[in-house]
Amino acid sequence: MHQQDDSKEAVKQQFAQHAEKYVASESHAKGGDLVLLAEWLHPHSTWVMLDVATGGGHVAKTLSPYVGHVFATDLTPRMLTRAAEHLRPEHPNIWYVVADAEALPFLDETFDAVTCRIAPHHFPRPEQFVREVARVLKPGGRFLMIDNVAPAGKQLDLFMNKVEKARDESHVRCLSIEEWRGLFTAAGLTERRESLRRKTYDFPVWVARMARDTKQIEAVETLLIDAADEMKQYFAVKIQDGKVISLQVDEWMVLLEK
């Protein structure tokens, strides 16, 4: 229990410190997946929806014109405040609630749809998060999740999570698709659609977003430079003049129904 509490405290500290970067982040604000949200969900103007771990509020912002109300939640008050300041003038139907993804403060069967994007790898108990999503969804409700996922191979999985943890102390773990599917099935959610894509990180921008100092940045860069060829090849690590330029990770988008 203490380890989970520590993980959540790390998340709050990290994201409070870097809230401005996440609201303005190009990769979060303009990801190719955002344009697919409405196409996949088929939202209705009467819907009440929930965006878990909203971060900079990019999903809430994208979907708010299509639905009645969006409840945007986040564990970090400062992050939520920054998102609200950014979105309130043009999106009056978004409501902001400080909430833990693993203990959502809503009644059973409240929402027509739930979304969560590029956040579950910060959750200490992803199985509890999935159970909570299933609980607050109405029967027939839709859950759209987007997150980085670990490759199927154990060594690739370990390496990816090691690099992520070195860059961001609040990182817990990227699960594999197989692991996520097990959690969804256990919670009574049925998969309706999925897509796996390769996402490219501009390394200097990506590593600086959460790093404390240049020493931490150098440590992450060294991990990639010194990695085995198998790792460099899978993650498409591009090195130029002894510096890491970019890398790629797997990002999974999945639509489920209760």
Question: Would you mind describing this structure in some detail?
Answer:
InterPro entries: Methyltransf_11, SAM-dependent_MTases_sf. Residues 50-144 form the Methyltransferase type domain. Pfam families: Methyltransf_11 (PF08241). One of its GO terms (molecular function) is S-adenosylmethionine-dependent methyltransferase activity. The chain is α/β, with parallel strands linked by helices and 258 residues long. It has a single domain, classed as Vaccinia Virus protein VP39 (Rossmann fold). Helix content is 42%, strand content 26%. Strands 1, 2, 3, 4, 5, 6, 7 and 8 form an eight-stranded mixed sheet that branches.
Distance between the termini: 29 Å
Mean pLDDT: 91
Overall number of domains: 1
Strand content: 25-35%
Q: CATH-wise, what's the superfamily? A: Vaccinia Virus protein VP39
Q: Note the main sheet.
A: 8 strands, mixed
What's this model, at a glance?
Residues 50-144 form the Methyltransferase type domain. One of its GO terms (biological process) is methylation. This protein has 258 residues and is α/β, with parallel strands linked by helices.
